[in-house]
Amino acid sequence: MISLEHVTFTYPSASSPALTDLTLSVREGEFVLVAGASGSGKSTLLRVLPRLVPHHSGGRFSGRVTIDGRDVTLAAPRELAGAVGFVPQDPEAHATADRVVPELAFAMENLGVPQAQMRKRVEEVIDQLGIAHLRDRRLDTLSGGERQRVAIAAVLTALPRVLVLDEPTSALDPQSAEDVFAVLVRLRDELGLTIVCAEHRLERVAAFSDSVVFFGEELSVGSPREVFASSPYAPPVSMLGRAFGWSPLPLTVREGRSFASSLQVAPPAVRPRTAGDVAMRCNGIEVPNVLRGVSLELRRGEIAALVGRNGAGKTTLMRVLAGIQKASRGSVDGVRRGRAAFVPQRAEMLLFRDRVRDEVRSPEWLARLGLSGVADRHPWTLSAGQRLWTALATAFTRDVDVLLLDEPTRGLDPVGKDLLASVLREKADAGVAVLLVTHDVELVARAADRIHMLAEGEIVASGPVREVLGESLLFSSQTSKVMADPRFLVPSDVTG
Prior knowledge:
By secondary structure, this protein is of the alpha/beta class. 33% of the residues lie in helices and 23% in strands. It has a six-stranded mixed sheet, with helices on both faces. The chain has a six-stranded mixed sheet with strand order 15-16-17-13-18-19, sandwiched between helices.
């Protein structure tokens, strides 16, 4: 179905290629997971398939690309619209309409699909992705996760032969992510859809994948068990399997539990951290149709996570805390003006200057966050992960009392998430209060001290992270599920 032969591509402002002599083939009806470090070339590979690279990006391209037997090396993206559907990392930036149903119909209108057939496809896709409740909504009223599901639906209505997705669940809660992958697998199995998906949250997608393309020091291609047996990172259950020599290497919680039941491992000794004074407090925050009397405290020295399903009101609460949205009732107290730093979901919106080094004026932070090599590039030419690090660095370099981070892991690989957890702990130890909104349960398990769970605009659970995650069916780490014990949050709790 897909063939790349000796593909090399260099972006206009880059000194080295993003892809070098890449040769790859994908069979019809195959689900291919593309993994690897941030900036390793994953997004570039995905953009080569619908010919966004080099047609929209510019740059130097060589090699041959064939899709469904057709040489598309010189094709324009519009010529592939009916064959290749592409869902980018930032669907908010690629919307074409102001409401959900017109957004779903846009691609079909351009392909000349008859009106009656368009209506039928829209209804089918709405049901498949569980977004009937969003059909009459304006796009600018949707949460990031809701926008992501609508973006996937908009591509599926065109019935492409190949579906290309760049981190399709980065803004989705665990249940929504599971639902989306279930739909994709059904389309693969029943319609023969070929899927190429880049994803950093490997625990979400490994079990659904037929093969893995891993961008490491060398390109690795093979089955998930073959690749994750030696890749620099893997799903937590596979990391446990590697540590204990389980064979075959487990990819799912069910497979892991069959091995873990025979382990005799003492739970880790955990010393509760003592939080400091209250740095920020909100009391009875209400926003019509979103928040209903939310109260919480952020304490110095503590990393708190705010979790909940898509549309629960997490981003709205963060905007109120950051002072960029007014509540209809309630108050925010404690922090002095200018002493809180906020990084929104679309972190790149904080970037205004022409060079990375002009945004991040600290050589130490440029080096620490892996940005020294791109310091003279324009921020908008970077990978999503590198843009996020640049935006985060603008917050990390400020002297503040409170850090507010909304989905700070979009585009970050597992190594990057470890670095983020380390930086947040360093900030907390220096007396900063940290609040992060995230759907990344593994990051919460690794980094957070306290967790607040939001549902229907209300805090429904709040407490130490091990306590709250241990009582949750959805917001629980893969290691906890494998060990059937909430005292084990991450693989190192088991392996020591």
